[in-house]
Amino acid sequence: MALKARVLYDFHSENPGEISITENELVTLFSEEELDGWLEGENSRGEAGLFPASYVEITRDQITSNTNNNGLSSPKAVTPTHTSYTSPESQRGLGAGSGGSGGGSFHTSQGSDDDWDDDWDDSSPTDAAQGMGTSPPLYPVTSSLPGRRDSSQQHQQQAKSSATVGRNLNRFSTFVKSGGEAFLLGEASAFVKDGDRICVVMSKNGPEWQEDPYPFMCTIDDPTKQTKFKGMKSYMSYGLTPTHTNVQVNRRYKHFDWLYARLVERFPVISVPHLPEKQATGRFEEDFISKRRKGLIWWMNHMITHPVLARCDVFQHFLTCGADEKAWKMGKRKAERDELVGSNFFLTISTPAVPLDLQEVESKIEGFKSFTKRMDENIVVVNVTINDFARKQITGFKKEYQKVGQSFALLGQAFELDQQAYSGGLNRAIAYTGEAYEQVGEYFAEQPRRDLAPISDLLDLYRGHLANFPDIIHVQKGALTKVKDCPKQEGELHDRCNIISCATLAEIQHFHRTRVRDFRSQMQHHLQEQIGFFQKITAKLQDALQKYDDDQ
Amino acid sequence: MALKARVLYDFHSENPGEISITENELVTLFSEEELDGWLEGENSRGEAGLFPASYVEITRDQITSNTNNNGLSSPKAVTPTHTSYTSPESQRGLGAGSGGSGGGSFHTSQGSDDDWDDDWDDSSPTDAAQGMGTSPPLYPVTSSLPGRRDSSQQHQQQAKSSATVGRNLNRFSTFVKSGGEAFLLGEASAFVKDGDRICVVMSKNGPEWQEDPYPFMCTIDDPTKQTKFKGMKSYMSYGLTPTHTNVQVNRRYKHFDWLYARLVERFPVISVPHLPEKQATGRFEEDFISKRRKGLIWWMNHMITHPVLARCDVFQHFLTCGADEKAWKMGKRKAERDELVGSNFFLTISTPAVPLDLQEVESKIEGFKSFTKRMDENIVVVNVTINDFARKQITGFKKEYQKVGQSFALLGQAFELDQQAYSGGLNRAIAYTGEAYEQVGEYFAEQPRRDLAPISDLLDLYRGHLANFPDIIHVQKGALTKVKDCPKQEGELHDRCNIISCATLAEIQHFHRTRVRDFRSQMQHHLQEQIGFFQKITAKLQDALQKYDDDQ
Description:
homodimer, 5-stranded antiparallel beta sheet, 4-stranded antiparallel beta sheet, 50% helix, phosphatidylinositol binding (chains A, B), mitosis (chains A, B), transport (chains A, B), cell cycle (chains A, B)
């Protein structure tokens, strides 16, 4: 029995395997199962092939478009995929190319995910779509949109509330959007299981997240190329192996992207590390795949060492759910239905027994604000400098050493016109010296990807964190301002403000610890690489020097 | 009793200690003794001070102007000091700044010698003279003019000769000027003592100069500043210590210059190494004094290792004559009266028993001509390249490393805003890393003078030799052509042509041996320096790396 679908938008096939479909046309579906946002069927002209699922509406009611094979895509979401709500403040100090969505705001994939994967795909449907004007959706879409459910939830909560404290007039402020205001006003309500509880403990450095009692690691293998549609479509898949299960799971970039959106929604005052950029910058002329993988390794490293993020259900689901589609889908739905997001997140926080001195909190937060500002400014300089330095090594330095090598080679060639026995050894040694310098030039060109690119990657990750913090600080400041404005309700508000403050300071403390750890290890790595590099040059020149003693 | 002198040209004092004198004026001399071309006296206006000796004529006949204190200067020679007779061919391939007078041509100082010394002299009389027009002589003049006596000697010889073989019509050809033609035509005649005899021996590589049985070395100390005229004039003096006497003698540049002129005149087919340039090039921003000293060391090295030059009387006089003015003057006059110059030089040559095959000689000479052409072309490229490379290291490379250092310093400064105990160690380590990179920048800037400047100096010296050889080859070719043209006189001409050829080939062989020795040792030195340089950088970075383990 033939399934039918009505075409919503014109689609022009531009790649083998695709068919063109026209608005209002009825097409026959071979199956209601989508494959990554594509359906297979036959158009009214009898051509069979693929077309984007989001371009058609299935005409039989009992078939929902969510029963797709791939549990991670929500192909029916007809929304521009470049959605990114970010407060202007969170963008401050962000250079071009930094992923830049702040904590508390959210971020979907920066462009279609297949767009990314299709870097290894000869037949890109996205390329075709880009020629088609703006009215139809981009296809296939990738992540679900946390903002939608989130806002409806907020509306519910707002309807329930009996507001005795004035609301923030700016409905788009991060304080409001993050759920901070709702929590402070006592509007948050959800059942918090013991397993969901997040503890802030008091250390000599102030509030900190309680350490993860079961730390683990996670390796990311080189991505492998996967194909579907009998080889017509391809994508890259990353093998992740967490040490606590020691079972490899395979994830695509869009799965990372989906996870990221969940985390941002879930944790208003936690700085979720940004995913590596979608766009290849070509910086250091590094291989694109390798660069993204390195970015994901950095990202993973920040995830697994964050006491809250590492433990949370959605991340664990992402890390541990195997090839069982059903299990994956269940976990996915559970995450998407999670109630403990936004304002309810704060319900999960257990604070130390003694509340914080809010004056002291305010001063700490101010200090941190200055810190992030300066760090942001200065790492921009560092990034520009080392990128510049990398470029110089790849071009100028290499060229200079090679020119020296070539000129020594010329000298050797001139000397070879004298064929007396006693000059042969020198001629060979000079020729070798010429080659050695050419090689040293190559060494210079190869080096930046080893010792400068990793620093640049680290700086990128930290620019992401620094872009997150203004929103995080905004939430805490919003709470503090509200407390100051309403002295009569001070008791309850004060307790809730204490929770927000504890969480914020714990996150700041975690940031500093991570920063010291990361920069220490990265600087060490950089210096080790540099030392190895100069030793390699030294060895090459020692080889050359040796030649002058040979055949003398 | 007052000595008087009549003024020949106007002289305008422009420096303290000098007095102005006017043409035809009578001046009173305080002494008939000149000091480096200057006299001290009183003019008709009662002003007392110095004026150039060559601007006046002493009115009492019994006093000769040659009884000066300084035996080396011949201050009365009223001749432009920029004399330099050089065949156009000898200039081929010479870049700007190479001293460039060929063998067989001669060369006086390139400008007044005091001009040179006055780089350390506040009151330069030469500066004053330069404003004075062209009619009076430049003052003080420095070296005697070998060309004058030389040409009169040639005239004598030419008058004596009974020419049966056609003369070269070009009286300015090197073949003629060097005395090569006169010798070939049997016009040379002089008494040759056994000690003057120069042996060419046959080795497996062809004719070679017989090795010096008493080789020696000679050190050149840092020059010291000497003053005269109660501190008003100053000059630099070089302490030379030859190992065969182990007694230090002091020589000024003008003494080197005088010696050079003697040697060029004495040895028509020997490549006398050029003296280091008069002009400071500022290359490598090297200290000027140090650069000249290094040039003189190279020069000395070539002198003492040349079997003929090292042994010759005038050089030995130069190296060994101490502070005894009388002894110096005697040796100087003896050298200037030496008969065994030009054509007579060839009378001193003892050849191997079996005469050379002139065909083979011709082909060897041709091969050498190609060799010098290629070497000359290629060392120009090498010189440009390494000078360029030096400049890049001093400017660009240094700047790049320092910029990296500064950016790390900035990172450290940002981090210092976080004053928690656990970040102090990292902050100090990053600050140290910044300093280390600044230091590495300095290393790069300092390095070229250690490992590129010496190569450049060596190339300069060899460009001098390569500029000498066209004239040397010209003498041999002139002789060969004459022999071919006059078959009937073949016997005698052939013998003399054999002498010229043996000497030329011995000199070429010496050039190759010296070249292989010099370039081998210089390339070794360069590589050793480079290795030390990269090891120094490595050590600095290892220090920096160590800091990350300290105070962790």
